[in-house]
Amino acid sequence: MFLRELSASLDHIKGVGPELKSAFTHLGVTSVGGLLCYYPRDWEDRNTIVPIGDFQRATVCTQVRVIAHDWFGFGAMKTLKIHVEDTSGRGVLVCFKRPFLENQLVVGNQYWLWGTFFYKYGEIQSTNFEVEAIQGGTSKNFAHLVPVYRLSAKLKAGTLRRCIKQALDQYAGPLENELPDYLIERRGLFSKSRAIRAIHFPTSVEELNVAKQTLVYEELFYLEMVIVQRMIERRRAPGEQAPDAPMSSLQKRLIERLPFSLTQGQVAALADINRDIDSPYPMARLIQGDVGSGKTLVSFLAALRAAETGGQAALMAPTELLARQHAENAARLLEPLGLRPAFLTGNIKSSGRAQLLKNLALGQIDFIIGTHALFSRDVHYRNLRLVVIDEQHRFGVLQRQAIVEKGDQPDLLMMSATPIPRTLALTVFGDMDVSIIRDMPLGRKPVITHLALQSNEMRVYDFVRQQLAAGRQAYFVYPLIDADENKSLKDAESMALRLSEEIFPEYDMSLIHSKLNEEEKRITMENFRKGVIRMLVATSVVEVGVDVPNATCMVIEHAERFGLSALHQLRGRVGRGNEQSYCFLVYTDDENNHLSDDSKDRLKVMKNSTDGFVIAEEDLRLRGPGQIAGIEQSGNIGLSIADLIRDIHILEHARTDAFAMLELDPELSQSEHHCVAQVLKRAPPFANVAL
Question: Read out DSSP for 19-75?
Fold first, then answer.
């Protein structure tokens, strides 16, 4: 019997009636299998004696004698106090809403006591404690590791432990291993039956650690089996390496026309893409690289490859501003080579849109660039061979899938300006090949980042004034558009007025935010790019925007309100040219707006690193995988005991073993290969964690 097959109702467990069954339902537990997989959130070490006298050092766990009862308060507020002592001192148990303990804890008798104590009203007190009568040499909840579970108001700790212990006694004995025996032996894991028993009621810390490792590995192994199977189904046959694909004639012509040379990272990424496009299997590749590393140019070269093979390419960007910039660059670089690019967003007028869609359907457009409009219902492609998704983290799984379905298994190229942490690369994007562009174009200098208290902002303004006097340009970014949203924060509209009238009256300034129409935003950004506007006041709408090489200052006010990814992207708006650039993170830390620990961590990371990979790992640690990867639109990954960050090394082992099993590693025996089908049948229904 497998644990996933234990669908028996909870009322099959001795002692579980309708009331308890209802309480378990509130916790999301509706079957015996669900109860056995309701793992503890922690374990209390009640095997180590900690006397009352050491209450400030650790949680008390000791044997005590009850020495007196008394009461305080009146009426409904009347509360029992029980005085206890051990060899180190005395303490008081304050029994809020537990008057029945007067009869259970008898004066003069000995009891086990566990609890957190504090000094108050001249005595050592505890309101959070457990007690158990000392009977013979055994104990239910003491002298060993005790599991701690998430509880509800209707379900107490002792009751939950009793029910799980009963379920283990009734059902855990005949549990079969869900992992193949050779993997259990190779990784030094427990059998499923022993792991389930030990995770709930371990006899030692060592046994608990192996039980956790077993169940974490099993969960991650199933996850990787699902992901790796998708990848292998889509990729070339195991062991077969597609030959190197030389650059096409159009790709060579574009590179020759460029006023600079490609970086080694760009050349390597392009070689990967060409090999994938020439393969008979659809490409699924992720390009990682910091802001400004040249990913877009690589995608243009990929579009040339698709066009030369008679196909069409589509590049989807998250904002109209970014899509328009890509379209303008594509027209400048690709039209002289004979490519026919086009631009499509939801704001294209109906008359022009109809003709554009007709040309697209007839194959008279080779490369279309736009926003979400690219997968609208009325958009049809003649032969969509390549889909490029820029700033992939800004799109959800379903949106990415929608544009892919516009073609017949087209090649997929996703780009990320914030590098994907290793954990997500093995899970959310685990069925994709990855190319990394680590180097930056020649002449680029790392952006120097400064932290500044809001009370010192005038020093920041003085520095920016020096840069403006030298002919440079600057961004000022705020978390809000107007003061109506939050009176305690600076907003873009009022600060644009103050900066232009009081601080920098001698320089032209403009304002941009999401409430402006697309034409206003386009004109503003174009004037800033041309240098007509020297300062741009904005919200995070410029997080993904046009390149302005002359902009050398980025001032982000209330920086503590932005996430790491947004801060990294905003900082990437400067440093696009050869001049030294600067980013000022202005933050508030006073009695009205106290800086949280997470905010401090984010600012320190930005101060100490410009490495997108370091920032991505910290972003994952602070935010969790769902928000970063855009998987919340299709549910979380659905792990119950594994942690993608904490268990990265187990994840790597699980992935190695999944590859070995699914690619029929010659080191495995034939009988071991027969396990594959059975293992996949038992895989839990994970959320759609990859495209």
Answer: HHHHHHHHTT--BHHHHHT---SEEEE-SS-B-GGGTTTS-EEEEEEEEEEEEES-G
Distance of alpha carbon 565 from alpha carbon 655, whole angstroms:
27
Rg (CA), the chain: 31
Ramachandran class of 162: left when φ > 0, alpha when ψ lies in -120 to 50, beta otherwise? alpha
Count of beta carbons in the 10 Å neighbourhood of residue 653: 18
Neighbours of 254 (CB within 10 A): 20
* Domain spanning 249-280+293-416, CATH architecture: 3-Layer(aba) Sandwich (3.40)
Half-sphere exposure of 204 (CA within 13 A, CB side): 3
Strands (E) in 371-447, as ranges, are 384-389, 411-416, 433-437
Fold of the CATH domain 48-143: OB fold (Dihydrolipoamide Acetyltransferase, E2P) (2.40.50)
Among 268, 261, 262, 266, smallest CA distance to 244 is for: 268
Residues 6+ apart with CB under 8 A from 359: 342, 365
Looking at residue 593, what is its pLDDT? 66
Please give the pLDDT value at position 501: 92
- Upper half-sphere CA count for residue 464 (Cβ side, 13 Å): 24
Please report which helix (H) or strand (E) contains residue 473, including its range.
Answer: strand 473-477
* pLDDT per 10-residue tile (average), the chain, 691 residues: 70 85 86 90 86 90 93 87 94 92 92 91 91 77 82 83 90 86 93 94 92 94 81 57 76 92 93 90 86 89 93 92 90 94 84 88 95 91 94 71 89 81 61 81 86 92 95 94 77 92 94 87 89 93 80 94 87 88 88 74 89 75 55 51 83 86 56 52 50 38
State the helix-helix crossing angle for 597-608 and 564-571, rounded to 10 degrees: 30
Burial of 682 (C-beta count, 10 Å sphere; 0-12/13-18/19+): middle
Q: Strand 89-95 relative to strand 123-133: parallel, antiparallel, unpaired?
A: parallel
